[in-house]
Amino acid sequence: METTNDKDTRRHYDEEFCQKCSDLAVIGLRPPQIAERLGLTGYVRENFLFDCTNPLHPLHILISQAYVHGEEDIDAALTTMAVSGDTDALELAFKVRRERKYNQLLNELFGI
User: Fold this and answer.
1) What is the C-alpha to C-alpha distance for residues 74 and 85, in angstroms, rounded to an integer?
2) What does the alpha-carbon distance between residue 34 and residue 75 come to, in Å, rounded to a whole number?
3) Pick from 52, 26, 58: which is nearest to 40 by CA?
4) What is the pLDDT of residues 70-82, one digit of tens each?
5) Are 38 and 18 in contact (CB under 8 A)?
6) Cα 96 from chain centre
7) Distance in angstroms (rounded) separating the CA atoms of residues 95 and 33
8) Would you say 60 and 54 are in contact if contact means Cβ atoms under 8 Å apart?
9) N or C: which end of the chain has fewer CB within 10 A?
10) Coil, strand, or helix at residue 86?
11) CA neighbor of 67 nearest in space, from 28, 18, 21, 97
12) Cα(93)–Cα(105) distance, rounded to whole angstroms?
């Protein structure tokens, strides 16, 4: 699952493990939930969660990108449903966009 390079003290994860993490993040699971699904325990779990919260670690970047892809997938599905005449999907799409803008504003102003 992970290997260490002599020149770099950061933990590195193999491609299969990263793909599993990405797939779970796309559906909206957070790092503790991902660790649970992957059966990580002890120090391996702690290291994984630490790496997920370190903005400079490639695993954090991968998971962050997966969240964005998941949001894009939801937007595309809602738009497709709205175009086909589903008014509930149209209403939900507007609510989702408004909530994202609200959360983005909170993050920009207060770091929340």
Assistant:
1) 17
2) 23
3) 52
4) 999 999 999 999 9
5) no
6) 17
7) 26
8) yes
9) C
10) coil
11) 28
12) 18
Joined tokens for residue 47? 């290291």
Rg, Å, the chain Cα set: 17
Residue with tokens 């997938």: 73
Q: Which residues, in sequence order, are CB contacts of 60 under 8 Å at separation 6+?
A: 51, 52, 53, 54
Mean pLDDT over 44-59 rounds to: 94
Tell whether the torsion through CA atoms of 66, 71, 76 and 77 is positive or negative: positive
Q: Give the C-alpha distances (Å, rounded to integers) separating 77 from 11, 16, 71, 93, 98.
A: 36, 27, 10, 9, 17
Has residue 5 got a pLDDT over 60? no
